[in-house]
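4.2 Preliminary Data

To establish feasibility before requesting continued support, the project team ran the inverse folding procedure on a target of 407 residues. The structure was first converted into the token representation described in Section 3, and no sequence information of any kind was made available to the design step. The complete token record follows.
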């Protein structure tokens, strides 16, 4: 939290409750007060005025010239309470110094000390409070009270100053705490929004990248083989139409989830049936129909949670999409195995392939998204070239006990 440099401290400008309230800028700028500010200013003005009227009883035997000075300065000090927000430190210094001898400035000086304690850090308010204590000495010696001796008068003054200053410090600490909690809440909300944006981007990529790559593959085949038999052309066109239709369905699904998901709902499952481990053979067959050489070894136990199956499916789907984009024509091996309580491992391997045809664009966002997806599920994912093969290896936990919604 930044310290004050003659300007309003955001921790103390009532922004935690009243965003429109602005304290003085330390240069005499215009002060905008909220309703709560007006109420507190009126109450403090009445308090200072009341203490001034009460103190007049102590001036019964005061000479008339000094009485006139007391009344004029006391009235000006009470009126100056309305300037405490604009010049809190200056107002406090003036009133405290005047209160070292004048009686009727005492109420305004206490209000000024309270204001500085609330609106300024300790390195500013502490010396001012110390000054208030020091000025008690000349007041007690030069203006002794009839019913109190110097010692008791000094003790009473110290008690009042410490109580007022302590009250202001407590209020300041409370406002700082509230401001800090609000800042933390705002930061948490921003983090939640960022995580939600990342989740949306990851889901959009995982859902659409596979379909779009299939469209690009079949469209490329039509472009490079315009003389293909009519049956192959029809089959490629049908695949393009089918994948375009599925891509639109997936897009509507994701958008529908975003529209109807309440805040804090986590990673919701859309209404349309989501892919599971049982859908991996269908995915592999679809890739084979697109011309890929894919071998699947699926030995995961039955009853995997829906979320686990969906994550494994998305990981295999993205790995196949990458293999199709960057190593089209290379044989791909998919191995998925696991049991309840041991977790599920998925590995997709393909030889490092050298192609002469242009590659489809890719920025590595898919692998980054897969790593994030595995991490959020409590697992891990590794990828890279090893033994002449590009491998994507993932492990996801499969608890022994699962919730009913996931089993």
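Position-by-position output of the design step:
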């Amino acid at each position: 939290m930044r310290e004050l440099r003659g300007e309003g401290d955001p921790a103390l400008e009532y922004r935690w409750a009243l965003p429109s309230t602005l304290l003085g800028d330390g240069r005499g700028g215009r002060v905008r007060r909220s309703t709560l500010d007006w109420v507190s200013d009126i109450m403090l003005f009445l308090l200072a005025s009341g203490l001034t009227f009460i103190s007049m009883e102590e001036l019964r035997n005061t000479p008339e010239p000094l009485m006139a000075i007391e009344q004029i300065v006391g009235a000006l000090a009470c009126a100056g309470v309305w300037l405490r927000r604009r010049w809190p430190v200056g107002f406090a210094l003036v009133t405290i110094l005047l209160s070292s001898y004048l009686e009727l400035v005492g109420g305004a000086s206490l209000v000024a000390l309270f204001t500085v304690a609330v609106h300024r850090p300790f390195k500013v308010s502490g010396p001012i409070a110390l000054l208030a204590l020091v000025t008690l000495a000349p007041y007690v010696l030069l203006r002794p009270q009839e019913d109190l001796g110097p010692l008791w008068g000094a003790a009473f003054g110290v008690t009042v100053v410490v109580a007022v200053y302590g009250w202001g410090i407590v209020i300041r600490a409370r406002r700082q705490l509230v401001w800090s909690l609000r800042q933390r809440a705002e930061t948490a909300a921003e983090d939640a929004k960022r995580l939600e944006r990342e989740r949306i981007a990851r889901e959009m990529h995982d859902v659409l990248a596979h379909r779009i790559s299939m469209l690009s593959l079949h469209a490329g085949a039509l472009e490079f083989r315009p003389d293909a038999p009519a049956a192959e052309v029809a089959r490629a066109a049908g695949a393009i139409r089918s994948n375009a239709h599925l891509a639109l369905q997936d897009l509507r699904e994701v958008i529908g989830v975003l529209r109807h998901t309440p805040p804090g709902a986590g990673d919701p499952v859309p209404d349309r049936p989501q892919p599971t481990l049982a859908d991996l053979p269908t995915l592999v067959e679809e890739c084979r129909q697109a011309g890929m050489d894919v071998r699947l070894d699926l030995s995961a136990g039955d009853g995997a949670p829906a979320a686990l199956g969906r994550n494994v499916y998305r990981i295999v789907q993205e790995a196949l999409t990458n293999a199709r984009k960057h190593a089209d024509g290379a044989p791909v091996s998919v191995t998925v195995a696991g049991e309840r309580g041991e977790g599920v491992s998925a590995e997709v391997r393909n030889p490092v392939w050298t192609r002469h045809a242009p590659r489809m664009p890719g920025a590595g966002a898919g692998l980054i998204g897969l790593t994030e997806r595995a991490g959020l599920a409590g697992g891990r994912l590794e990828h890279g070239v090893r033994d002449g093969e590009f491998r994507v290896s993932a492990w996801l936990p499969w608890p022994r006990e699962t919730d009913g919604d996931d089993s």
